Amino acid sequence: MNDQRTLLLQFKNNLVYNSTFSTKIVHWNQNVIEDSCNWEGVACDISGHVIGLQLDNESIQGGIENSNALFKFQYLEKLNFAYNSFNSIPIPKGLQNLTNLSYLNLSNSGFGGQIPVEISEMKSLITLDLSSQFQGVIPLKLENPNLKKLIQNLTFLKELYLDRVNISNQGDWWQDLSLSLPNLRNLSLRDCDLSGPVNPSLPQLQSLSVLRLDGNNLSSTVPNFFANFRNLTILTLSSCSLQGPFPEMIFQVHTLEVLDLSHNLLLSGTMPIFLQTGSFRTIVLSYTNFSGTLSDSLSILPMLSVIDLSVCNFTGPIPSTIAKLTELVHLDLSLNSFTGSIPFFRMSKKLAYIDLSQNSLNGSLSSKHFEGLSNLSYVNLGYNSLNGSIPQSLFNLPSLQKLMLSHNKLSDQLNEISILNSSNIDTLDLSSNRLEGSMPESFFKFERLNVLSLASNFFNGTIMLEKIQNLRFLTTLDLAYNNLSVEVRSNSSEFSQFPQLTKLNLASCNLHEFPDLTNQKKLIFVDLSNNKITGEVPSWIWEIGNGALGYLNLSCNSLVDLQKPYNIPGGLSVLDLHSNKFNGTLPMPPAFSIYLDYSSNNFQESIPVDIGNFTSFTRFLSLANNRLTGAIPKSFCSAVDLEVLDLSGNFLSGDIPPCLVQNIETLGVLDLGRNNFTGEIPDSFSVNCGLKTLELSWNNIEGKIPTSLANCQLLEVMNIGYNKINDGFPCILKNSSSLKVLVLRSNEFYGGVRCPGVNESWPNLQIIDIAFNSFNSSLSPRSISSWRGMKLNNNAQLVRTHLHFTYLGLNNLYYQDTVTVTIKGLEMELLKILTVFTSIDFSSNNFQGEIPDTFGELNSLYVLNLSHNSFTGTIPESIGNLTLLGSLDLSTNKLTGEIPEALTSLTFLSVLNLSYNKLVGMIPIGSQFQTFSSASYAGNTGLCGFPLNTSCDSEKPTENLAPSSSERAFDWHFILTGLGYGIGAALVIAPLAFCKQWNELLDRFLKLIYPKYGFNYVRYDGKVEAMENIEDDEVEDDHGDELSLGGYCVFCTKLDIQMKIAIHNPECMCHLLTTRILSNQNN
Questions:
Q1: Is 151 helix (H, G, I), strand (E, B) or coil?
Q2: Which subcellular locations apply to this protein (predicted)?
Q3: Which of 687, 589, 706 lies closest to 645, judged by CA?
Q4: Chain-centroid distance, C-alpha 143
Q5: What would the pLDDT profile of 653-709 be if each residue is shown by its tens digit?
Q6: Three-state secondary-structure class, residue 595
Q7: Is the pTM of this model over 0.85?
């Protein structure tokens, strides 16, 4: 019909569209004789009337709002303007003239503002789609009219899609839907700012088949009546703040095909046992609190193609029957606690994506696991405990693009791989395994490779860095921490042909010089730490990445200076220069640094007074172990985001600025130990104090403990030992229930240790050292009994974690607390304080009265030292209950009576000193007691029996004079170590079997991920760790006498009979506790 043709051409002329991208209206041409009903996007009835306009994806930008031609199509039934760009103009009111319109689709077309009331007059509508996938500049909204008014006349409506339309503050919108739209089948209201629980009126929509409510704040439980919808096929409630148990009966709705409950962290439930063959195609429960095991009945869901149970709390094995799902395409079970082996997926021929990472899966990989999976493109099995070799067939999967097997126990050598079958691989991550031998040359021939990460294995040999020239698409290269030697050539023309990397990690690659990175324009991450690079840091390094460098780690080299002139880019977020030989003045930090470590160098002079102006965004700052002098600049007080400040091991002096603890409420660790600070501890701790570690030891601080320290309710570690503080017992901390380590050693504290009105405090205390003070009076049995951190329940296990402070929370980083303890007669610094390590040292005070029996309740205690006091009475029998006790020193007191027979049950005891008391009787006979020398009992004239020369029926020898209890120094040569139960003088079987041989590098290994760039950060230091399980490699104990210099573990060593050498147990497995002997002088 000519009139319809004319209208179409008028309509086209009204529109503003991009003819380059148009595929329909651009071809509407009046010069072509062709029937206009045959034009693309036009549909007509048998009479030639236009009844449909499908104009989606036509790049229309305007002209519709005043198009009279459009509104004259009186027979029009379907109108589709989806996926155009109308630039937030309002929906035209003239659409109400299209009285026969039953289908209106304006989705994702860029309309904005209030939805016109005229839409509510379009009574013939069956489908209305005003949804959007993305928030527009001016989003659509329903205010006037509101939802109720919009739909009240649309009684024939069966499909309503209003995703991302603002429908907030609508009252009882559920009931409005139920009453006005009785025929509704599909309802989608995603991200509409709706709130409130699901109304019980919803079941009135008996025809409902599709319900999508994702992204609304329902904040309620899931009602049971969802199971009553007989036609329900799709139910998605993602990110709705749902809570409580999910009704299991909903899983049994036989018509249900898609169920998405993801991102409801408080929603709990279990996967049911499916009782009948269901219709499920997609089940998504990720980021919920679902738990329990998976049933074998999953296999009776023959159409199931997508299973996403990631980031839940599922346990148990992955059922082998899951491999019978022949339609399975996507399987994600990551970040759970699944155990056992990986099922075979040979029957799941359509499988394209599998992620089982971060579980506890074990066993080996076989070629049969993925046999015949020609569509498999994504495999992530990282962070498990898989062992054995990597099957060659895995690399030969024809569609494989991403293969991630990191952080397992995979071993053996990799053979060369067929390039033809592996040509699609773009991501290969085999890091943190036990792979060995030479790196396959074929890795450097994967032309599409984008990410190559082989770090933390045992690959050996020499790699020429120029080999990566062939990998044109490579953006990430990580070869760190192998046994490799990476060689670089100085020919800059070769480096100009390198791919444009974004991340380069060559830590511990035996580098002797800087690779030439001057042509790298996209590089944001560089780690060259733990190499053998000497000389100056070249000035060009600050210019790589076109000034966008965000991470630079040059630590653990032999660098001496920064080549001048240099310009450190302000956007450098992580700068780590620790453990080099830098000297002179401190370089000014980058303006936006978050992590800054200049520790363990030879920087001298004073800290720049304006350094705080450059650390406004810094979270971690360490200048420890340098030769810095002068006072702490007050500008630090403006660094209000600091979480860790470590200035220890310098020659800093003066007072501690009060604003440091007053202004920085985020500060979790303040370490000023081993300096020359004077004055008092500032009494200015904020009421919002977040401090967890306060380390002020080895200074010249005087005065009293400030009362405002009581504001630090989260305090876990307080070490103010080796100062001149003159105060009573710190009862101001009596309510600090988090306190785990308290060290007051070698100060001028006095008085009793009881706090008035308090019988119990510090339930988590595990280390207390108040030795070498002037405390007196008796000990409170009830207070000691309240230290539950030193107790093990009957069913408790030793959890091998460490005291630490987590900072940069998104990165799994923590600052490792340290403390000095006296064990076996030597001062040693525990670089890692195990939460199971417990110690009490009350020595060299003037405590009186009897030793409380309640010490015997502390059944996880490892060290007990009450020596050089004035305790009287007998040794409590209850000490025999301390079955984990490794060191007991009660010497130089006034104890009487016999040595309790119960002490012979202390089979882990390697240090015993009962000398210089008034003990009498026969020394008990027991396996462990037979190993101690006579020095353990010296000065007790009433004792007899082995190992003393006095038999129990002979005359007692002349009494030896005991040293005065007031003496502050005493001869630890009197403390001789036992020869060891059952194996002579060589070894002590440690009470805690978690030691591994000393390895100076691997013991301090840490991997850090910086969120902005996905940085992998490796740090060799005792104070920074990554919160993940890092398993060291077993090596033979060939260190010899280096152990006597401090390389030994508290639980795995003992001193020989002459106290000259530490003897190490070669079978000991101590990778979680490291000790070293401290010098009492600053470096």
A1: helix
A2: Cell membrane; Membrane
A3: 589
A4: 44
A5: 999 999 999 988 889 999 999 999 999 999 999 999 999 999 999 999 999 999 999
A6: strand
A7: no
